């Protein structure tokens, strides 16, 4: 099999070193399966899409100016720059990824494999599609606890104004005590009367 050095794939603005052995792009739907008691079939519910995954395999040889390890270091630099603690989304330029609408990726995994009988490395890159999430923030009026209490009071007043007028009138009347409260009060009165009856006058 003959491989041609391909300069059409760029990752973070850098042409990938070596020969492109393969590139695979996978898009997957999210599907939940439901367990139904007594049924052999599992109903399926589609819930969305997974982020696409890109797997690129490279064959890296020595050149006249660089060793295979020096060329591999280019990939390591893209994967994790010195001092970088968190992977960052990076742009990708490739016909295969463009066919899937992928413009940015997270460099998820980098591996290489060397073989004794060959003066080359096989490098594998795993990239995950990056889709930025838009978060809508809501602002509150004031940051003090007093304004929070005031807003709760306003909410309670608004909720009360939505009540049926007859129910509002009922809430405003003396509704007596609950049966449990009457039982406690009656027991306490009986105990007090018993103590009073045993006291000398």
Task: Describe this structure as you would to a colleague.
By secondary structure, this protein is an alpha+beta fold. Helix content is 30%, strand content 28%. The model has no long low-confidence stretch (mean pLDDT 79). The chain is built from 5 helices and 9 strands. The strands form 2 sheets. A 7-stranded antiparallel sheet has the order 2-1-7-8-9-6-3. The protein has helices at 68-79, 95-98, 145-161, 165-172, 179-198, and strands at residues 10-11, 14-15, 19-26, 29-33, 44-49, 53-61, 90-93, 104-114, 120-129. The protein is elongated, with a radius of gyration of 36 Å. Strand 1 (10-11) and strand 2 (14-15) form a beta hairpin.
Major sheet strand order: 2-1-7-8-9-6-3
The share of residues in extended strands comes to: 25-35%
Helical amount? 25-40%
Radius of gyration: 36 Å
Low-confidence stretches: none
Number of strands: 9
Structural class: alpha+beta
Distance between the termini: 118 Å
Order of helices and strands: EEEEEEHEHEEHHH
Mean pLDDT: 79
Overall 3D geometry? elongated
- Count helical runs: 5
Biggest sheet layout: 7 strands, antiparallel
